[in-house]
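ESCALATION

Customer reports they have been waiting on this structure for their group meeting. Please prioritize. Original submission:
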Amino acid sequence: MTIMDGKTVLITGATHGIGRATAMGLAELGAHTVLVARDAGKGQRTVEEIRARTGNENVDVLIADLSAQSSVRHLAGQVQSRYPRLDVLVNNVGVFLATRRVTADGLEYTFALNHLAPFLLTNLLLDMLKASAPARVVTVSSGAQQVGRLNFDDLQGEAGYSGQAAYNQSKLANVMFCYSLARRLDGTGVTSTVLHPGVVRTNFAKDDPTPVMRTIITVFKPFFKSPERGAETPIYLASSPDVEGVTGRYFVNKRARKSSSRSYDERAAERLWQESERLVGLASHPAAT
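Update from on-call: job pushed to the front of the queue and completed.
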């Protein structure tokens, strides 16, 4: 028996980098591991590789483009119909784009994929997570949250777009979402944690990097963490008995750390929650007391 036997885990962005390494690690621990992939062929190849390397046949893939809210809703429906329980949700998918793009819903792509997608998916799966309690929501943020600012006057970057500022904002939003979710889930048996995985050798920003980002990646990539090392903290938060019941905390290298001072602004976090609900079309939830 291993610590994740009998537990079902859903991981977004699971076919490359940190997500793939996290899926591999949780499958090795015995979890029924469900990958979320945008590309069906790549998703199936990743499933087969994980099964072969871990000996765990309980590895599946679901296909979704998480930048589109209709696809997020379809994914949530598939999870609810196919699986009797959900013990862990790992919100890992993310992107960096130097150029402003919009999604099928007309939203700025970085904010939509990095923040609104996990916000919507988590909310749609909350009843399932509560029914499976004790359960965990683990969100992958970044050290970029330290310099992130929420621009409520221009969350979509319409007035002025910077790829780095958009990314920083989305990673701060991840942390604030984690804390807000923890407050709302108090007493339910579902925990919410968030993490910085470190600077990892992945395909991050490869499709549309800024010149500065391209230079940094080219020069320093040999010194970055491997995806396997980057996955250590999300695996730990998803599986370890040491963090059973721990909620509303930010982790680096498997240790709880302070996040940015802005991330603890509960008034701003509540405004972000309400605005996120509006942007994804969810009925308003009462504020935490």
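Sent to customer with the following note: The domain at 8-280 is CATH 3.40.50.720 (Rossmann fold).
Escalation resolved.
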